Amino acid sequence: MRAFGDRLQAALRARGPLCVGLDPAPATLARWGLADDVDGLRRFGDTVLDAVAGRVALLKPQVAFYERFGSRGLAALEDVLARCRTEGQLVLADAKRGDIGSTAAGYAAAWCDDASPLAADAVTLSPYLGYGALAPAVETAAASGRGVFVLCLTSNPEGAGVQLAGPTPDGAPSVAAHVAAAAAADNARRLGDAVGPGSVGPVGLVVGATVGHHLRDAGVDLAAVRGHLLVPGLGAQGATPDDVARHYGDLADRVVPTASREVLHAGPDAVAVREAAERLAAACAAALGRPGR
């Protein structure tokens, strides 16, 4: 496959800057009139894919909502991933994995290896056993044309107590700044002096829609990461496209705003879900000064 960074850049240009979360939470299934069981899970997933597959830059299934049904839930997730491959839809598995040694390698094989039915185009990772422990996933993903998004600075209130702690032993002003610097170094090793096409690395960061100023105030240059920024918090979590533009507008070509309930609550009609996604993608494109779909 082409490198994930290149494929995501192409999708953002063609489909607009939006990632739609595929979150079959019990409350959302109930809102759609679906049972909170595997059948409801599958019907929900099929409808969302009917609505947006091939129409948005990135689709992000939340793995936890599938795992709660055990092997039958994971089988449903495998079907979502397989359909996305067939329909040319980039998909990010929101699994937030992170461990050490052989366990980290096992997670990497599950989510980033061609041989796995769970392999997605990218996976979210947690760096809180040490950024270096993510190496198996980063290496496996990059070798197969996939990517990773590393939790850096999230918008949940609990996150700041860890992510903004510092300074760290390497002199970074905070843990989040250390993670950003480590991601930048990882991408630099792979990209060298590349500019233009091919200059976006496989390691992206997760940064909340309204908290980017904490990194800027600490002197962190997010452009130096040379990876995509997954920016959650739109809609139901309170952020607007203008918030995204205010904090990350200078990186408009690499920002991927993400929303779940803001789009999914338009269901259960697939056309209504599609229209909600298209409206939000257009609003994000306008705020960021990017071409719309």
UniProtKB/TrEMBL annotation:
Pathway: Pyrimidine metabolism; UMP biosynthesis via de novo pathway; UMP from orotate: step 2/2. CDD domains: OMP_decarboxylase_like. InterPro entries: Aldolase_TIM, OMPdecase_AS, OMPdecase_type-2, OMPdeCOase_dom, RibuloseP-bd_barrel. Pfam families: OMPdecase. Keywords: Decarboxylase, Lyase, Pyrimidine biosynthesis. Its EC number is 4.1.1.23. Gene3D superfamilies: Aldolase class I. The active site is at K96. Residues 17-276 form the Orotidine 5'-phosphate decarboxylase domain. One of its GO terms (molecular function) is orotidine-5'-phosphate decarboxylase activity. Signal peptide: none annotated. It catalyses: orotidine 5'-phosphate + H(+) = UMP + CO2. HAMAP family: OMPdecase_type2. Belongs to the OMP decarboxylase family. Type 2 subfamily. This is Orotidine 5'-phosphate decarboxylase. The gene is pyrF.
